[in-house]
């Protein structure tokens, strides 16, 4: 049977988040090593790495604030040194954002959202593309938002920077395909993890909100982190070698 992935590892930015952890475990179960990038949740990142090692794969953790290019560059170099190659990037990084109308965003809220998600993703792309070219190819998988096609009430601080990244993904696909570099997005809906869990705890995703949102869903239940993980695994794998 052909390997689903080249030798090396997938690098998951935001691998200590609710969805990111599920994605990391999905890649480990698909028989590839994992480099987890995190900003502050070291304990969660290390616990996830231990779960991956228990599956029988190698896992490393790398601390980096995605807003800081030098930290990203250092962390990625460490991942390459350890794993020999990074064959795929999954972008799952993103802040927990306030649920407010555009007119009520503060300048700091919008700046933070754009710097973490849009500038952060561009930092990753700028660092990773030369490595992918040198290795004969690679894959970007961006966890975007279903709100990219349908603006969700009050969730613009999450959707706006992801829309920027959607454009970057299309640009990478068109410009870098000649180097066997692919770029795809998963437009994520309501997943039972991460910000959704925080919103439930804080009360702004209440029973009325859940009822109204489920009324719009073809499948009347929330997604799970492993659902996103399996989609990311497919898009990064050799099975999707002509998908970009």
Topology:
Elements (H helix, E strand, L loop, with lengths): L8 E5 L4 H12 L3 E6 L3 H14 L3 E5 L5 H15 L2 E6 L15 H29 L2 E8 L10 H21 L4 E8 L6 H8 L4 H10 L8 H12 L8
Parallel strand pairs: 1-2, 1-4, 2-3, 4-5, 5-6
Helix pairs in contact: 1-2, 1-8, 3-4, 4-5
What's the short story on this structure?
This protein is of the alpha/beta class.
Description:
The protein has 244 residues and is an alpha/beta fold. It has a six-stranded parallel β-sheet with strand order 3-2-1-4-5-6, with helices on both faces. The chain has helices at residues 18-29, 42-55, 69-83, 107-135, 156-176, 195-202, 207-216, 225-236; strands at 9-13, 33-38, 59-63, 86-91, 138-145, 181-188. The model has no long low-confidence stretch (mean pLDDT 90). α1 packs parallel to α2 (42-55), α1 (18-29) crosses α8 (225-236) and α3 packs parallel to α4 (107-135).
Q: Distance between termini?
A: 24 Å
Element pattern in H and E = EHEHEHEHEHEHHH
The helix content is: 40-55%
Task: Specify the biggest β-sheet.
Answer: 6 strands, parallel
Uncertain segments are: none
| Backbone CA Rg | 17 Å
Number of distinct helices:
8
What's the rounded overall pLDDT mean? 90
Task: Using the alpha-carbon principal axes, give the shape.
Answer: globular
Task: State the secondary-structure class.
Answer: alpha/beta
- Report strand %: 15-25%
Number of strands: 6
Strand order in space, largest sheet = 3-2-1-4-5-6
């Amino acid at each position: 049977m052909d390997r689903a992935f080249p030798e090396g590892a997938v690098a998951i930015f935001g691998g200590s988040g609710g969805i990111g952890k599920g994605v990391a475990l999905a890649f480990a179960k698909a028989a590839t090593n994992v480099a987890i990038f995190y900003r502050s949740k070291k304990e969660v990142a290390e616990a996830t790495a231990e779960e991956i090692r228990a599956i029988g794969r190698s896992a490393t953790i790398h601390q980096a604030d995605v807003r800081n290019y030098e930290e990203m560059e250092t962390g990625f170099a460490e991942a390459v040194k350890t794993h020999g190659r990074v064959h795929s990037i999954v972008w799952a990084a993103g802040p927990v954002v306030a649920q407010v109308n555009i007119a009520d965003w503060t300048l700091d809220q919008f700046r933070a959202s754009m710097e973490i998600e849009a500038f952060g993703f561009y930092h990753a792309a700028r660092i990773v593309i030369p490595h992918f070219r040198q290795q004969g190819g690679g894959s970007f998988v961006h966890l975007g938002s279903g709100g990219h096609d349908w603006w969700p009430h009050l969730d613009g601080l999450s959707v706006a920077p992801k829309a920027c990244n959607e454009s970057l993904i299309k640009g990478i696909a068109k410009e870098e395909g000649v180097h066997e570099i692919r770029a795809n997005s998963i437009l994520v809906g309501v997943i039972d993890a991460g910000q959704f869990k925080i919103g439930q705890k804080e009360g702004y995703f209440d029973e009325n909100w859940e009822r109204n949102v489920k009324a719009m869903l073809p499948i009347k239940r929330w997604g799970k982190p492993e659902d996103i993980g399996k989609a990311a695994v497919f898009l990064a794998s050799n099975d999707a070698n002509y998908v970009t």
